[in-house]
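Subgroup meeting minutes
Present: P.N., E.W., G.H.
Scribe: E.W.

1. P.N. recapped why we're keeping a running log of single-chain structure predictions: easier to compare across weeks, and new members can see raw inputs and outputs side by side.
2. G.H. added today's entry (435 aa).
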Amino acid sequence: MVGVQQRKLAVHDLEVGMFVADLDRPWHQTPFPVQGFYIRSQNDVRALVSHCKWVMVDEPETRGSVGVESGSVLGFRARSKSRANGRKKLELPPLSIREPVNHQVVTTLKKELRISKKILGDAEVALDRMFDAVRSRGELDGRLIADVTKKMVKSVCRQPNAMLWLSRTWQYDDFVYRHALNTSVWALVLGRQLGLNEGLLNHLGTGCLLSQVGKTALPVEIVEQEQRLSAEDYEIFRTYVQRGVEILKPSGISKAVLSVVQGHRERHNSSGFPAGVGGEKIPLLAKVAGIAEFFESLIAPRNGQEPMTPAKAVGFLYEMRDFEFQKDLVEAFIQAIGVYPAGTLVELSDGCRGVVVSHSPERRLWPSVMVMQASDGSPLKSGKVVDLARYNESKAQGEALAVRECLPHGTDGLELTGWGATNEYRWPLGKLFNR
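Output recorded in log:
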């Protein structure tokens, strides 16, 4: 935003409501998941005191505006103080995962992409068969979904960026399939970040894949207009969760999986449905699924709806911490997917354009980008991946290459599909992912 004024302030002089724009140390060395945030409680002040001596805050006159700094390096800094108005806030003790697993990246992105491509194909087939069975009132066989979920879990545990990137570029014929599958991938990446073991990740992934089953029992016109419903139609739409549970119960699906289906639309502050429960009454896996499903609905809404850029959706989600979603989970989600998640279309500071392939947790503002257009807008004959963190290692502060802004889905020349109708990659993987 043009004309933003900042001033240096000692952390002991901070007050609730101020917008912290910069720190006296690198952001990645702090627990704060995004660069730029509002101080919403004394806990935020105490956290800053423990890590910093001074910060840069925006002047009061800039905090009343709403929107995204399209020209900033960050691309998503939220400016609205009123987003929480009328909403119930709930703070819980820090999240504790019993016996967390430290999942290590054990394979290259190039190798895992080939494996993940087949897994996503299997997942599409499994979803297609399941929905056909539901529509024809046939017998549901949960084993097919369970088997493909196990493959997805192992892939995400080995190398989370491959499945995440492919899920953003995969082509489907049915919105519900795509929504369920992408939700499952986002949830698995978050679950991996939390240290959930493979058994819990299997329950989580299966629950996400099955979470949309109840929509098959709703009128088609309500499902297709789910983000633009009247109050009466919305009451009908809300029943899809319970309908899904009732469809799945006879199939022998585990209680853990059913709890994900049952609770993925509940909200931390009890504003969700169907039961309107909140806080610790929502099972952990359902909370994870809820964040994943919400995020996917922001960046990939139904046809006719304007999608958010992933970076803007990250900022929007961050503003909801301790309101719709538990703070710990929101911050872990952002740490897992980065400020610019895989699949985000971006323009770099040198004018080149491309798509984010992966990110480094230590350098969340410097992802790896597959450059597809030169600075003059001309398409490259062959794509190249630039690891911004590695590229900037030897660069002076003013010479670093960074993300200038996020671009909307559908930007000319930046198709997210990595292959055409023949399912062949546009560029050889060896040239794109050589690490």
